[in-house]
Amino acid sequence: MSPSRVADVEDDDPVIAEYNVYITPRQLEQIYLLQYPNRNRSQAYNDRNGARPVDFRLKPQAGFMEMDIGMNPSANFNKFQSLVWGEAIRKSKTNGGSATFGAAAGFAPTKGGKGRAKQEGSEMSVDQGLARFQEAVNRDAVYQKQTLGGQILQDEAGNPNYMLGAFRGDELHLTRVDGVVQMRPQFHHVDAITHAETAARRTEAAEGNGPSGPGAAAAAAKQPQALALAQTYKDNRDVENLEALRAKNLLLIAAEEKWTRLEYFDEDEEASYETYHDRLFLKEPGAAPPLKSQMKNEEYLDAISAPRVDPSGRKKKRPLTKKQMERIEAAEDDVEGSGEMGGEVEVEMA
């Protein structure tokens, strides 16, 4: 390519900026990247959009994270359904359970209706809640929140590493991410209705108030039963699917682990800006050691490229050993030596 054409190509895509790259050291605090696949970027969960998280919780061992987003019950709100869901959540808590269901709770079974009689005097029916809706809101009998949650994908060896980039002048500071979580809507309020019905049937059967007879026993036998998870120890050689065993252990940990409450700071608060400047930038860039790659260019290309496959399907020959190479060289020297000396070669015909 001529120099003029090279200059034209460079002018079409010139370098407009250069940055010095720095990597911040890892600290005790963990950094998680939260993704919201069902939410538009312009409608973030923050104070500016009226969607500030009111509760943030984490199960670090099981690897689950959830947060509750408050909703405005005075506009575009289904009052009847919110009272039904709120009553189901309240009954779940009254029965000794929690407001979390599904994988984050380890698919734990619903507990019995212990202490139910003590709470019946203070219950508010759905009809009463509709007539006195504001009172029901004040008593937290209305389900007025949206729960988002997901499982933490931890940073593992061999997988791509996510890093957060922060610019400051001509500097780019990269901070390693400890995990990625895709926060999706959770339907604990719907599961609470099923669990409340199951708990009510168990309580009636235990008290002897339910229907009796062979037909009732057969109907009860057909009802789906929630099974508690019990930890068992087996030799790995007897386990056909290690992933299934790992999933069972994860659910067991999730069922036993309690939520750890976290304090939430909005992105526009002063504490968030202080954390941003303190965590995402290197303290002394001038004293930072230079970054050196541990791989050569060819090694890097081999690492990121797909394995080479011969389309002919023939197996590659093994490389010659050192002794084989020496023998070939010695044989070549003998042939060359005989050619220089000259002579006649007799060929006998059989």
UniProtKB/TrEMBL annotation:
One GO CC term on file: RNA polymerase III complex
InterPro entries in UniProt: RNA_pol_III_Rpc5
Residue runs in coiled coils: none
GO BP annotation list: tRNA transcription by RNA polymerase III
Region of interest called Disordered, as start-end residue ranges on this chain: 201-221, 303-350
Biased segments, Acidic residues type: 331-350
Membrane-crossing segments per the record: none
A Pfam family recorded for this sequence: RPC5
Compositionally biased spans, kind Low complexity: 206-221
PANTHER family named in the record: DNA-DIRECTED RNA POLYMERASE III SUBUNIT RPC5, DNA-DIRECTED RNA POLYMERASES III 80 KDA POLYPEPTIDE RNA POLYMERASE III SUBUNIT 5
Name assigned to this protein: DNA-directed RNA polymerase III subunit Rpc5
Biological source species: Aureobasidium pullulans (Black yeast)
